[in-house]
Amino acid sequence: MSIKITKTIELNEFEAWAGGAYRLAEIKKLNILGEAQAEIEAMLDGQEDVTETTVNDILWFEMDDFINQYSAEEDY
User: Which of 3, 13, 60, 71 could make a disulfide contact with 19, Cβ separation 3.0–4.6 Å?
Assistant: First the structure.
């Protein structure tokens, strides 16, 4: 038997790990948490049951281009 716990959090409250933690730190450094959260929500396309692993994997494997567009702007 298991207990299912559902909670709503903001990206700045998410406790990422491994590569996801590195990407989240970059997002925080660039001060684009709101934009990143909107991007992740769009990627999830209204999914109701999202796991922490799913969010971490999105941060780790799917946010590079998103982050790079903002870090490129910072270079100017």
Answer: 60
